Amino acid sequence: xxxxxxxxxxxxxxxxxxxxxxxxxxxxxxxxxxxxxxxxxxxxxxxxxxxxxxxxxxxxxxxxxxxxxxxxxxxxxxxxxxxxxxxxxxxxxxxxxxxxxxxxxxxxxxxxxxxxxxxxxxxxxxxxxxxxxxxxxxxxxxxxxxxxxxxxxxxxxxxxxxxxxxxxxxxxxxxxxxxxxxxxxxxxxxxxxxxxxxxxxxxxxxxxxxxxxxxxxxxxxxxxxxxxxxxxxxxxxxxxxxxxxxxxxxxxxxxxxxxxxxxxxxxxxxxxxxxxxxxxxxxxxxxxxxxxxxxxxxxxxxxxxxxxxxxxxxxxxxxxxxxxxxxxxxxxxxxxxxxxxxxxxxxxxxxxxxxxxxxxxxxxxxxxxxxxxxxxxxxxxxxxxxxxxxxxxxxxxxxxxxxxxxxxxxx
Length: 411
Hints:
- This protein is of the alpha/beta class.
- The protein is built from 18 helices and ten strands.
């Protein structure tokens, strides 16, 4: 890939990256990492760093108690004064805490700030009926800056190779890539609404007005559960939907739900994302569904690929009985339970776009046989496992731990 990337950038010789549609997403992600590292190095003037002592990273110092405001203030200042810094590797410090960010602190920062911004108390997003996903809250009272911050965080996550536990429908990534949504996207993102509109389109007879009793009005739910109506054209409340205009009605309804009603929120979100991603080949190389996997990972969990790269310490190794039992229990789990176990251990229930063979899970001995449940340091992918005296006891304790774990945004 290094030679292919050089040919791509120089324009000399053949490069598969000129034809990204033939490449697998994990291959393109390697190319993106090359591009990111080069952009990061270009944003740092070695002589200036030596003379000024300026930090050669995008350094972010935040208080845990004020994480959203601190991050927003600093990132906006950087974007205004020196946008090139946004292309540097992110280095995070929590104010008043000692420690070097070797990836764990950065990962914890993303976990905490995403959880905060998606907290229902902020009311920036609403749950979608019949899905485990969220969409922009059209009636949100939050300032535009917070939506821009979330967009910036998505861009920073791509740039720093971090998977985020967020639950947007695929249409969001289509919009980020400049693709206009249609009824198929509404069916995927808002199943109940989309399916009912599709039934209208599929209705074969001409008595649409009498059967469906619809006007050119869209209905949404407000912050407090109240019904809010919006005319899809001037005088829409007095314009019945008929067999002649039903396609126009559905197109306007889709546009309202996925575009018009949330345009202020999404525009700020996209602005933040583009501040980070606009200088990379992201949009040229990746399709929307691939961008989604790059940001939130893949739901395909192959623990057999994870087992050979697992690490052990504090008295454990691959031949320890409790470790062998762990893998036997894990391989017998359902996909849903595997996702819960991964989220319990790493903070995210999905695999990187290149598969789980690129992950590392550390098993650390946490005392001898005990009635305690397993615990984890999710920021460092460390599973703390007591040395249980039987496979059945391990199974019971492990299942109990993951079933009672409530991580933010498990997907």
